[in-house]
Amino acid sequence: MAPQPSLELRDIRKEFGGFTALHDVSLGIASGEFVCFLGPSGCGKTTLLRIIAGLEVQSAGQVWQGGRDVSRLPPAQRDYGIVFQSYALFPNLTVADNVAYGLVNRRTARAQIAQRVAELLKLVGLPGSEGRYPAQLSGGQQQRIALARALATAPGLLLLDEPLSALDALERVRLRQEIRALQQKLGVTTIMVTHDQEEALCLADRIVVMNQGVIEQVGTPMEIYREPATPFVADFVGKANVLPGRVHGGTLEVGTLRIPYQGQDRDARIYLRPEDVLARPVRPGDAHVFDASIEKIEFLGSYCHVHVTTTALQPNKLTVYLSLNYLSEASLAVGSRLQLKLLPERLKVF
Length: 350
Known about the structure:
Blueprint: E1 7-16, E2 19-29, E3 34-38, H1 45-53, E4 60-65, E5 68-69, E6 81-83, H2 95-105, H3 110-123, H4 139-151, E7 157-161, H5 169-186, E8 189-194, H6 197-203, E9 206-211, E10 214-219, H7 221-226, H8 231-236, E11 241-248, E12 251-254, E13 257-260, E14 266-272, E15 277-278, E16 289-299, E17 303-309, E18 317-323, H9 324-329, E19 337-342, E20 348-349
Parallel strand pairs: 3-8, 3-9, 6-7, 7-8
Antiparallel strand pairs: 1-2, 1-4, 4-5, 9-10, 11-12, 11-14, 12-13, 14-20, 15-19, 16-17, 16-19, 17-18
């Protein structure tokens, strides 16, 4: 028998007047998993998180946690800790009092509270900060305190509502690494809402890609990126060139290129990642090779977005990733001509 999910959503539906924000969403999350709800603004991911937390009431469906139906329980009777995008720290309380807030409400003994607060502050890298106030802390430090407060009661579920979006880029990368390390150390089942695909790919055991109130795909970061189940996932996660093509007689026709492909004869949309167009090695006799001309180079540090034009494909523009070292070694610049090669096994055909 398969193990019972730590959290199970059964046909969750949410309506706001005549607008349906969630369409019969079902999902199981295993104990100790780190799951990211990923999608554009308005896709329903935050609404789904708030239903799990009991901050919104679903119009239909059930929420099960730890084998019990918590669908109609108020937030205080559900077993979770939550970290909001805005941190939501109490400005008039010290760091210690903020972290201890849930423990005080549970009437935990003072000595135990002090010990637990000290443990958590050490865990999030802020030992000795008990007497400071939120206004005396940086954004990253405030987020660490919010995380410590959420973990204080040792919840079975940790909910993170876009917790890193208000931080600068360097702090965001640093803190997401710390959150992942902390989650793995504690083994707490975690759900994070984000619209940042890099964040989801970096952190998650599984990603739930949402769009317009439905789940488009659930999978590991590699599955989501390499094997998108729908055109939306292929387009939303990572960058992709979108090319028109046709399946005909066991061949995929892409511009002037002909690639063996088994499928029903039909028109198709083909998604091709920029890194799946190779500039090297291209050898004499290689298949699926075409000539291109560099139209624009976007410098991004160790690699570049290189926009090329070619008569082999329609539309005749393509974006590829080339390393800075290769551009330098091959003396390539705007206007340069080069040969490129497609990787047929990496094409996603819809």
